[in-house]
């Protein structure tokens, strides 16, 4: 009596290590755009090996800023935060890759830039929590939620980079 064994090593490995293909919402905040850090910041995610699936320059309306940061509504800094995020254009990005949510948070560094390690974006380019240059989703669920908030249908593109086999076995 024949039995079918289906063994998918990549799937098993990803379940063990938590290395799932995920998507995250990364945003260069108005200070990052004003300071000319757009290319530098995009470059760090590109060089790491993640896949850009969405990208636009955008002036955030107040209502969207409030929904994006709704978890922080009760904080005393909330009005300042909304003022900051809507103070000028932002660069909205969707990035995809294995473990991209946590990895992007590492590349970005701690919320308070004075605590952020050198080599991280905030560690290298910022000094104040209220001007910390970049946003990154804190969970895969929020990655999906935020990409849905900031991008319209058709603005996120599924594509296969020619170098894909050189980044992931
Ligand atoms: P992160 O952006 O690192 O995920 P949070 O979700 O805690 O951090 O906060 C969201 C954003 O709100 C921060 O990136 C920062 O711009 C702002 N923020 C957080 N705490 C403060 C604070 N104490 N004063 C001013 N702005 C703050």
From TrEMBL:
Listed under catalytic activity are:
a ribonucleoside 5'-diphosphate + ATP = a ribonucleoside 5'-triphosphate + ADP; a 2'-deoxyribonucleoside 5'-diphosphate + ATP = a 2'-deoxyribonucleoside 5'-triphosphate + ADP
What keywords sit in the KW lines? ATP-binding, Kinase, Nucleotide-binding, Transferase
Any one Gene Ontology MF annotation carried by this entry is:
nucleoside diphosphate kinase activity
> What is the main EC category here?
transferase
Entry annotation: catalytic residues: 135
All copies of domain Nucleoside diphosphate kinase-like, residue ranges: 21-158
For this chain, the family text in UniProt reads: Belongs to the NDK family.
Instruction: Specify the protein name.
Output: Nucleoside diphosphate kinase
Q: Which residues of the full protein are shown?
A: 63 to 231 of 231
